[in-house]
Amino acid sequence: MDLSLSTRTVGDRTVVEVGGEIDVYTAPKLREQLVELVNDGSYHLVVDMERVDFLDSTGLGVLVGGLKRVRAHEGSLRLVCNQERILKIFRITGLTKVFPIHTSVDEAVQATD
User: Fold this and answer.
1) What band does 81 get if pLDDT is binned at 50, 70 and 90?
2) What pLDDT, in 10s, does the model give residues 39-64?
3) Which InterPro entries does this UniProt record tie to the protein (predicted)?
4) 9-43 burial, b if ≥16 CB within 10 A, otherwise e?
5) Rg (CA), the chain
6) Helix or strand or coil: residue 51?
7) Span 107-113, mean pLDDT?
8) How far apart, in whole angstroms, are the C-alpha atoms of residue 4 and residue 17?
């Protein structure tokens, strides 16, 4: 399966909607998108992972890299995920302590954490 990416602006946040699989083959596409957004001045990102079917360690690395990029500009990166199999990966790796994870885009956009 391939990776689908689209972006939209909601308030002062840029929402990156991700679908499909984030793995060693598709993660570079997501990395390019995040780098491009930060380079263009978008420092408050919401990555909507509601349609993600699979996430591996390469994908986790891309998300952590994106977080470091936005934090360098006093920004934020929030995740939207409500699928137990994906949430389990974040819990096992301890990344629930690193990323604010929300159940909806609206919740992520309105959050102040």
Assistant:
1) very high
2) 999 999 999 999 999 999 999 999 99
3) Anti-sigma_ant (IPR003658), STAS_dom (IPR002645), STAS_dom_sf (IPR036513)
4) eeeebbbbbbbbbbeeebbebbbebbeebbeeebb
5) 13
6) strand
7) 86
8) 8
Structure tokens at 56: 């591996």
Supply the DSSP string of 72-111, one letter for each residue. Answer: TTT-EEEEE---HHHHHHHHHHTGGGTS-EESSHHHHHH-
Provide the Cα torsion 37, 41, 47, 52; round to 10°: 0
Sign of CA dihedral 35, 38, 40, 42: positive
Question: What is the number of other CB atoms lying within 10 angstroms of the CB of residue 73?
Answer: 12
The amino acid occupying position 76 is S
- Asked if pLDDT for residue 1 goes beyond 90, the answer is no
- Relative to beta strand 13-22, strand 44-55 is parallel
